[in-house]
Design a protein that fits this description.
The structure holds 2 protein chains of 2 kinds. Chain A is an alpha+beta fold. Helix content of chain A is 28%, strand content 23%. Chain B is globular, with a radius of gyration of 23 Å.
Chain lengths: 364, 499
Amino acid sequence: MSDQRFPTQDALDSLRAQIQHASENGTSLRIEGGNTKAFYGRPVAGETISTIEHRGITHYDPVELIVSVRAGTPLAELEAALASEGQMLPFEPPHYGPGATIGGTIATGLSGPRRPWSGAARDFVLGVRLLNYQGQEHRFGGEVMKNVAGYDLSRLMVGAQGTLGLITEVSLKVLPRPGACHSLRLNISLNEALSQLAKWGQKPLPLSAAAWHDGALHLRLEGGPGSVADTCRMIGGDSLDNAYWEDLREQQLPFFQQSNMPLWRLSLPANTAPLEIPGVDAESLIHDWAGCQRWLHADIDTETLRSVCAQAGGHATCFTPDRLPESAGPFTPLEPMVAKYHHRLKEQLDPQGIFNRGRLYAEF
Amino acid sequence: MNILYDERLDGRLPQRSKDEVLAELSRSIPDLTLLHREEDLRPFECDGLSAYRVLPMLVALPETLSQVEALLKQCNRLKVPVVTRGAGTGLSGGALPLEQGVLLVMSRFNRIVHIDPEARIARVQPGVRNLAISEAASHYGLYYAPDPSSQIACSIGGNVAENAGGVHCLKYGLTVHNVLAVDILTIEGEHMSIGSQALDSPGFDLLALMMGSEGMLGVITEITVKLLPKPETAKVLMASFDDVEQAGAAVGAIISAGIIPGGLEMMDNLAIRAAEDFIKAGYPVEAEAILLCELDGVEADVNDDIATVREVLENAGATEIRLAKDEAERARFWAGRKNAFPAVGRMSPDYYCMDGTIPRRELPRVLKGISDLSRHYGLRVANVFHAGDGNMHPLILFDANREGELETAEALGGKILELCVEAGGSITGEHGVGREKINQMCAQFNSLEITTFHAVKAAFDPQGLLNPGKNIPTLARCAEFGAMHVHDNQLPHPEIPRF
């Protein structure tokens, strides 16, 4: 029986060969797709292994709401294919450049403005194919909506940045684009905005994005035409160009260009009050994701910032690690017990430390 | 074929005398409730998969986390296996005890720790019943979305262990999509918090790894779930078809119209008759299939969607379409579906529930395959589906008192699951592998993939003491079972002993 699960292709063969070579020679590899998110993490030494030739949508059935796509496929190409069928990636991933690939999107696990309402990249991953440290192909999950057979290694790969294996293909759940979409701008204070969002959050409103900055709350409503129109009337405010959300997601708003200080992403529980960060005016932050994701430009002691976030139940990630002192890592250090099991997983799944060594944390 | 633990295939288990373990545990954790007499152990001999029963060595009923911690440390030291159990409603034998193991029952951890309506989260202990969360959140206008049919009884800890679904998961997701954080105790008795109340955490997504891990990686001690605002309205359409394939095609047509229903369920004639006989839901007993399509959300959108779906169903050949006229009728329509399993249970001394998933487009072919298998094995099969997400629950009717009929039902069930895998699907959508589908895992995964699963297990539980024999088969079992997926006729790791 021929095995449909692993199409043989030159690109895949060459990825496999490169990993096998590294495995045999004890060298390490630096995984690269479109090279748009290299900034997001610690620098990695090693020979570059590129997924860019391993591309193409292998299966897309709009009726099934599932698409399978090879890692090197440009994100823009995938999104265009979905849009032609009136569908989308609900987690609105950031591109950070024209070359972004789906492999990098899933490996970094980043999500856009719709995340608190729709779910994150990891929530839409149904399956992955990957090459392990010996270049052997594995398939976990699959092209079905529900699958609880075995451990969920597909989702474990999301955000692991290739440190546990090389993702070669991803299957994703997709959804129809909403029938109506309208954005609003409300001139209200940060405190008013946060308390209003906490109230609205308890109601079944068609909210799909909410960001406060520059003295105003920006909202996006998506759903059926009836509910979007009703909610617009209830909330009031001024119309806002829907393109705002793409600018926010892609860090193209003036806020992101204005400063040479380190850029921080703060991830916080819902309904967290404005943070008291020493020397920082809370109103200078972008409060995206209804306050769950906040963007900050600040030259601030890393440990101080992380401790403020930890007290609020969150964590801080630096999006410009090159602007940090060498001792500080971009990602919040792990609790000792959690770190212990990270080490053990890495030892089990990449015992030679071939893949993206040190990308997340210096130790692995 | 016997699915009980077989040391020859599933690995040697440490041999400890019951008296010794009881004495050690009683001495080191004097305030822990330990059951050891046969009559006390008997109620714990099975979970929801009641065809398989094993008396555990001991049952532990802890009331405090320090007792659980001490128990795990002792079992780790004594090398005694630990099987964790919640409410015992699981359908795949995930909490099937071991003769040489301690059954750790978490049902006394049944407290809702905290509900924060403004942050829309609830912190709960693992023994809290699924439905109790929604009931407690109800007066804030909130609820917990995943709703397995056993939700009045099943515990949230068990839901996490199995990554439970329900009739609303096409739109609202599985347990993995609705849990923000878990606290666990490792087999070494270490406390670890995974995830957080924020929407993401640094490092690997260990939270996803814990979901559906069937008590193999740690013992869940607290869970933080996401709460959602209750939809303003929910309406349900029931469509009758005189052809099962047409009903299947109608499901795809609804999705193609850009609509994601809150629930989209299908039942075949045998299931319809059983449910109607039991619940008097008002189902059309002559129909070959019915679809229940629930649309929920804001009133204006729901009304628009009802109109669209009605048109789609008409075009798809529905012979009758009824909109539940009020909340009472809507509840009745759902009661028929949610009680389909016990309803079928009234028609037959025993039934065996399968849980395969398939790409929806394969529905007609797989239904035909099931019907052929049913005839071949001489056992009736009633079909109930979460049609929207391709999750099938064929119910095999049999009589365990008839010589060989349980074995026939198992064989038929195994063939149905293999049919699902062959159609590009999975052997389990929401019930878990447990002990029940341990052999079919060998059909879904090749030996390399299974070896990688064992590597993950080894990272958390190097001695293999947490729920041994569940979820992931040994390579020896796959080799014996004979369905191991061999790629290009090459057995990887030929050096690994398989017998």
